[in-house]
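Technical note accompanying the year-one report. For the benefit of new consortium partners, we illustrate the data format agreed upon in the data management plan: each record pairs a sequence with a structure-token string. No post-processing was applied to the example shown here.
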Amino acid sequence: MNEKEIQQLRQPDHEIDPIFINRWSPRSFLKKEVPEEVLMRVFEAARWAPSANNSQPWRFILARTQAERELFHSFIFERNLEWCKNAPVLAVLISDNQNRMDAFDSGTAWGFLSLQAIKEGLKTHAIGGFDKDKAREVLNIPEEYNVQVAIAIGYQGEKDALPEDFQARELPSNRRPLVETIFEGKYK
């Protein structure tokens, strides 16, 4: 889906940079390797996310080889595996739980990563449907880290490459109007 098609589906209430409108989470990925320098720019953007007391609690565990991706496949729920198995890069975002802002800060790093991915011609899709305990075990994640989310990263594929029941959902979703998100003074 190109930028013009996306912008027909998504209309902001106020003028903003198109990168925010163009970021969405497709499920169809090409089995095309992401060059090292492109991938590192995506993670470099995450590196510069703000964090409480500059603690930078986030860490990323990457899977780029077939063997590494198969390890990740072992803890991703089957329904998500149907589409994410083609992504050339999988990542798990973890955060140091000794920092009470770890989830907030690591979510910000994920946001920065996803926006840089758009600038690089990549797509990302955060995956909540996986077994966090098994991921901890398989990836040897220390107890002082919270397992936040898995992420598929790669070049967007065609929607007809997906199982039929996913194809109808392979388009950018809209957002609630801003007036339903902001409350003045107190919650109404």
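Partners are asked to follow this layout when depositing records. Helices lie at 3-9, 18-22, 36-47, 66-73, 78-84, 102-119, 132-138, 164-167.
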